[in-house]
Amino acid sequence: PCSAARGPMGPVLEVDMRRLIALGLMALLVGGGSPSPDGTQPWSQKILDQGLSLLKPKAPEPTPEPEVFTRASVTEGQTGPVILVSAPKLEAKASLNMIQENGPTRTYISDDGIALLLQNGLLAGSRGFGDDLMSSDHAAAHRAILKGSGQYERVLRYINSQNQLEAVPLTCGLTDHGAETVTILGHKHRVIRRVEICDLAGRQIENTFWISGKTIWKSQQWVSDRVGSLTIEQVR
Fold first, then answer.
1. Residue 173: CB partners within 8 Å, gap ≥ 6?
2. Residue of 20, 44, 64, 141 with fewest CB within 10 Å of its CB?
């Protein structure tokens, strides 16, 4: 079966079709003017009214209200860890619940099937975005985050246009930016902000981690060109 195409041309085609129908109805007015059977209004006037109504622009659909995230709403019915994830480039935000824990690796999933793999709080992979990070090497990055500084290599892996796994090497450095306080859905955490800057094929990407002890309470981590960076907050 065929499906209707969606995209920039959609509204134009819809308006043109309504205009053609309206003009067709109004063309029936030629030779019209005879009264309707009940003698109240000529058929021509009814057709004219219908044609004019179709030519009027449709009222815009109301914009849906953005979802409001509260600590109660994202943890309701959940007993395990929960993260709040926002993708500014995609204008999307969702809460994800942990469904599996294997050593330092946790798998989180949203209600609509978006999944993230976090290893010691660092992004190890994503699924469901369409341009996903398949896996990454970040052991050296984790050591530097705990220490507060370091120079090291990282590797990100993606599926390329030939449907093959491709490794993208990074050269990174991490620096300490001092103590701060972050607030996550009403809960405050005293943390240290540490910033990682990596060279990716001649350009720079930046990842930021807000850490207390060994817990990364908040981070901004790069996924891919299409997805951009995700902001990940540890709610519980």
1. 150, 151, 152, 196, 197, 198
2. 64
